[in-house]
UniProtKB/TrEMBL annotation:
It is found in: Membrane. Residues 1-19 form the signal peptide. GO terms for molecular function: ATP binding; phosphorelay sensor kinase activity. This is histidine kinase. The keyword Transferase applies. The keyword Transferase applies. It is a multi-pass membrane protein. Residues 162-214 form the HAMP domain. Residues 222-434 form the Histidine kinase domain.
Length: 434
């Protein structure tokens, strides 16, 4: 039974049935006891009335002899002789106990009340079976209204449960009827307190999905725009290669084509790295890695670029710098920072990289001798495809965006400042190990 309404109804009806059973049982026994007490009171009053009356008049004796009466009056003398019996009976009580008593006579039991008046014993008796039947009838009649109203209570309970769960059905209908591409928040007006957290959580999830889809659409649009220029350049270079008339022109066209393919491959690689580290991407496989080793690997991959520009790479990582993370992603982070430093530094400049523990926290610092970044633009350069000077350099505008994305997935922060070498200092501080 997975229906909430069915569960609520079953629980409420079970509680009502239990309550009705308890109330019915208590009422039945109470009415039974009160009826028994009333019958005892009648016996006592009748016996006391006969005692005070002194004798039974003939007309009264005729009335008491009516066989439809359910009680019998007997009077004995002091020596046990029967003086009077209201009516003949095969199994009348043959003995008398003063006060109330249950006396067995033959196959039935009599409820008796006996008083003593002078030399006479007066007894009023009533069959126990008749008393019980009358008492049970009175008790059942008192419980009957409760049994009769039970279906109405069940119907009202079903209606109440349906009404209470109406907001839940409204929310389900709103979710079911909306278009797949609609990520607008669900209405929250007049929702019960128990349902508000669920709708708020759904709206939060819808907001995250909308943000992720907007980010993806913007990413695809920007990627398409950025890829258009390199692809057009490749097509132009291929045409120049086809039209080359001599070996020297052909060799120059092949070199330009190779550079264009390399730039396009680098751009595609950067796009893939950024896509893998987007918000909502699968979590990184974390392990205990050495930031210093990741820095060495990244510098080794950047050596050809540094050599082509006559730049010098320096690494300060005398001791292991352990942290929890993904070695491949960390290598990409360091490589992007070093690549940017080399590309934006003048030829022959020095790029310094430090991977150290600072107050127990892993710290990566990259210093270059380039033009640096004005403080007003240091936050802007983390945007995708942003270039301070679009016409200069060979960058894709993705390097620092990738650095911040990877750092965020490792719980690290990236800050930009002024380098002692006159250029830019990029610092990545990771959380201290527990």
């Amino acid at each position: 039974m997975n229906s909430i309404r069915a569960r609520v109804l079953a629980l409420l009806l079970a509680m009502l049935a239990f309550a009705a059973g308890v109330m019915g049982t208590v009422t039945y026994h109470n009415v039974l006891a009160e009826t028994e007490a009333l019958f005892d009171y009648q016996l006592r009053q009748m016996a006391l009335s006969l005692r005070d009356q002194g004798e039974i008049a003939p007309d009264q004796a005729g009335a008491l002899a009516d066989r439809e009466l359910d009680f019998v009056i007997q009077i004995w003398s002091a020596d046990g002789q029967t003086i009077y019996a209201s009516r003949p009976h095969d199994e009348l009580p043959a003995r008398a106990l003063l006060g109330f008593a249950d006396v067995s006579a033959g196959k039935q039991t009599w409820r008796t009340f006996t008083v003593l008046r002078g030399q006479r014993v007066i007894q009023v008796a009533q069959p126990r079976q008749i008393r019980q039947r009358l008492a049970a009838g009175a008790a059942l009649r008192s419980v009957a209204p409760l049994v009769g109203i039970a279906p109405l209570i069940a119907l009202l309970t079903w209606a109440a449960a349906t009404r209470v769960l109406r907001p839940l059905r409204s929310v389900a209908r709103a979710v079911r009827e909306r278009e797949p591409q609609s990520l607008s928040p669900l209405p929250t007006a007049k929702l019960p307190d128990e349902l508000s957290p669920l709708v708020a959580a759904l709206n939060g999830l819808l907001g995250q999905l909308a943000q992720a889809m907007d980010t993806q659409r913007a990413f695809v649009a920007d990627a398409a725009h950025e890829l258009r220029s390199p692809l057009q350049a490749l097509k132009l270079q291929i045409r120049l290669l086809e039209r080359a008339e001599d070996e020297a022109t052909r060799a120059e066209a092949v070199r330009a084509l190779a550079e264009g393919v390399e730039r396009s491959a680098w751009l595609v690689e950067q796009l893939l790295v950024l896509a893998r580290n987007e918000p909502g991407a699968p979590p990184l496989p974390t392990a205990r890695v050495d930031l210093a080793e990741a820095a060495r690997s990244a510098l080794a991959a950047t050596v050809p670029l540094a050599v082509s520009r006559g730049s010098e790479l320096a690494l300060q990582a005398d001791e292991p710098v352990p942290l929890q993370g993904d070695a491949g992603s960390l290598a990409v982070l360091v490589r992007n920072l070093v690549d940017n430093a080399v590309r934006h530094s003048p030829p022959g400049a020095r790029v310094e990289v430090r991977a150290v523990l600072d107050a127990g926290a892993p710290l990566l610092v990259v210093d270059d001798a380039g033009p640096g970044i004005p403080e007003a633009e240091r936050e802007r350069v983390f945007d995708r495809f942003y270039r301070r000077d679009p016409g200069a350099g060979e960058g894709s505008g993705l390097g620092l965006a990738i650095v911040r994305t990877i750092a965020a997935r490792h719980g690290a922060t990236v800050t930009l400042g002024d380098s002692p070498q006159g250029g830019l200092r990029a610092s990545v501080r990771f959380p201290a190990a527990a």
